[in-house]
Mannose-1-phosphate guanylyltransferase (Hydrogenovibrio marinus), 233 residues
Amino acid sequence: MNRRAMILAAGRGNRLRPLTDSIPKPLVTVGSYSLIEHHLHKFCQVGVKEVVINHAWLGDKIESALGDGSRYGVNISYSSEPEGGLETAGGILQALPMLSDGQQPFCVVNGDVFTDYPFDKISQLTLASGIMAHLILVPNPDFKSEGDFGLEHGMATLDKTYTFSGVSVLHPALFDGFEVGRLALGGILKQAIADCKVTAELYEGYWSDVGTLERLNKTRQDFESNKIKMEKL
């Protein structure tokens, strides 16, 4: 079982301004809870109790809002990044000592997505020998004509057929040879995919990248109208 997880929460949220001028994007609410609180509840429900959250923009507000995680049934550790953040891979690299002993995979979820994907699947997933990552892909949303990766016989491909959901299981060895600093995840994944070291699956349930005010409002409407198959906490 993958007992540790990282929620990526260091983004500035420029496309959600002016809302995110005073509220970090992961604390934006859908229903009665913030995006990141929904993730915390879901991780607790599937037995993932150790959660690392990185932050750069208004990080003090994230820590103040979530505390040590006890009220969500988890233990939260924070990884503070410099102004501007370290990008996805850089943020994971900095937090790696809190996530893994170097051998154990861990779950990663973007703090600004909202989905009813069942987290028990990633918490129970076992990476086969030599596999560095497992990605959850989704159909390309209306606002995105070209995807990120493809899928063939359970393996991720470099075709741009589907969109990466921001939900994954990663092995710490994926980051071997890299040092902490500003570092994007996309290039690292593409190289691992080219080396046939990344598996994937397609999820066709509810998924929303809450990246703009329009998409945030649509997600809120979908949640309130029960279009999303998850408990209203």
